[in-house]
Write a structure and sequence with these properties.
heterodimer, A: about 300 residues, mainly alpha, 3-stranded antiparallel β-sheet, about 70% helix, B: about 300 residues, alpha/beta, 6-stranded mixed β-sheet, 4-stranded antiparallel β-sheet, globular
Amino acid sequence: MVTGFLTVVVVWCLLYGRMPMMILLPLCLGLGAALPLLGRHGSGQFLTIDVLAQTSRLNRVSPLLKFWTVLVLMVLCVSATSPAVGLFLTVLMLILTVCGGGLALHDYIHLLALPLSFLLLGGLALLLEVTAQKTGVLGVPVFGFWLCVSQAAQTRAMLVMGRALGSLSCLYMLSLTTPMSDLIGVLRRIRCPEVLIDLMYLIYRYIFILLSMYHAMRDAAASRLGFVDYRTGMRTTGNLYFGLLFRSYRQASRNFDAMESRCFDSGIRFLEDAGKMKKAHGLASAVLILMTLGLSILFW
Amino acid sequence: MKNELLRLEHICFQYEDKFPALKDVSITFQKGERIVVLGNNGAGKSTFFLCCNGILRPQSGAIFLHGQKMSGSKEDIRKLRQTVGLVFQEPDTQIIAGTVGNEVSFGPMNLGLDRKEVELRISMSLARMNLEGYESRAPHYLSGGEKKRVSIADILAMEPDMILLDEPTASLDPENVALLERTLEELNEAGITLVVSTHDVDFAYGFARRAVVLSQGEIIRDSDIEEVFRDDEVLEKAGLKKPLLCKVAEVLETHFPEAGDIKRPRRMEAFSDYAKRLLGQDPKQACSPQEKRTAEEGF
């Protein structure tokens, strides 16, 4: 809802004076309404991304290819001098993730809403200037000052937001279609330090173990009225975290035993996918890159 | 002995500032055996397994693998861990990777096998555990029974001669326990020695031929499972109950003196034959299926 309102304000300021009122007004309201209407409510779990990546149709595409493609596209997007490239990539990635990966549109928009609200706030800060007199295309008097939007600020904000939105969409495409273990595999192949890789594998796994431990303990505490009022709730939460720390220590030592029993000595090694890249996939990503490159040259 | 697989001699183990967890434990496991380790909580079952696998170093005593004494050298420990696999009680203790395929590859990769061999072993052990097509699934979205199967596949991929299973039935529903029983049967038929620790005496009675009873870190009985469950003194000391079928047979033996000559049934499937021989007629004809069911449940 807040994001929707922000969208209306920012798009209004951004495009005011650049197109006839007849188009601008419905565009603002349409975009603002699209977010809360199309987004899904209530399923705000941060693990959703992991579940979605597991079920994406694009998770069979070589993760290495995806990684490099996204990297190149992001570089192109950030170095472009026109917001068109960013917008193009935003739409492209949405199509790729939703149509290609089989992700529901409202899930995508719901996930995008959070970073988008930060982005819009940032955009607003770039747009507005506080001046003593009314300047620029748009002005609102506030306590004897003027909040103004100049044409230069509009251009600048559009470019920055276009770049940010484009890069964000690229990263979303990568993380919504690639399971975490594949991503870690990519990092290993581009020679990230072994220690980091091992830690990443373990942290990823332990997020789930600790989280289920935490949920079980929290539910057990709640069933004994541990959260009956604010004071008790605070105390219970403290105990819960202490218990979690203690149990994770014990769990860690047991886990280490289990790793040792499978001949672990140093460095976690898994059999990684040879990652054979399909020709069609390689071709598709080349086309994507060329299209983006062409667009950024066109709008230079 | 030619068929000797693993021998423990006078093993003593003590955790820091605690009472001894294992006291002078000596035992020999033969090839192809299926054994249960019985005992209540804190009897030392898990410690015993961790010693067999070379995770815990006993303060005194010796371990022999294929008759060869295991020194504390890296080489020997590695050999011990590869030959004697250990399936932990909680699958989550064991599973560390983000996908099932990666998870199963962990053991073989640690053994330093080449890529082809690792791939072969992954598909072999997943197939054996009915987990085909699970390679790219994430373990944290699997059910309890599936996780258990993954944790066994983990060990199978290392091709051990012997597998120790710590309380494998503890967190499984009856359907998965039945599935596990069948799986263990198959593994044993393939020549793998199985040692299972459990509280579930009914499962133990049907599964094993030999039972080892641990109590307060000591082996208080090691013999044919039939004899163990006839030994009331040992059962009381170890805090164990008798299996249902064992109790039934005992009741029948007091009423039918000739029952003592017939071998006691260890599984429900064998019970019908037992009853047939005892009563001299087919129980299916003697009573309707429903009556039979109530009779079975009534015991």
